[in-house]
Amino acid sequence: MLLGYAKNKPSYGEIEVEVSFDTERHHYLIWHTGWLRDRWVHHCPIHFAIRNHKVWLLANSTEHDLGADLVEKGIPKHDIVLGFHPTYIREISDYAVN
What we know:
This protein has three helices and five strands; from the N terminus they run αββββαβα. It has 98 residues and is an alpha+beta fold. It has a domain at 2-66: 2-Layer Sandwich (TATA-Binding Protein), CATH 3.30.310. The longest helix has 7 residues, at 66-72. The chain is elongated, with a radius of gyration of 15 Å.
């Protein structure tokens, strides 16, 4: 799934899209590096982690609904945590709290 998202290169600047799979510590992310005019860009738009047998979405600054995409891939909502939201928001979602 991440490799598919990584095909979407920003339409601005000289930005490279990188993908990282840390299977030992269970972190999976996409990050952007490069130049936007005279400004250095280093940004992580997507970051997943596996914690306590659940998929934690730690960053999503894309227009994609990553939780829905994970559900579509077969991961139940009760195994997905929207970690970028505070607990009180997670409690009212259809996803896991922690």
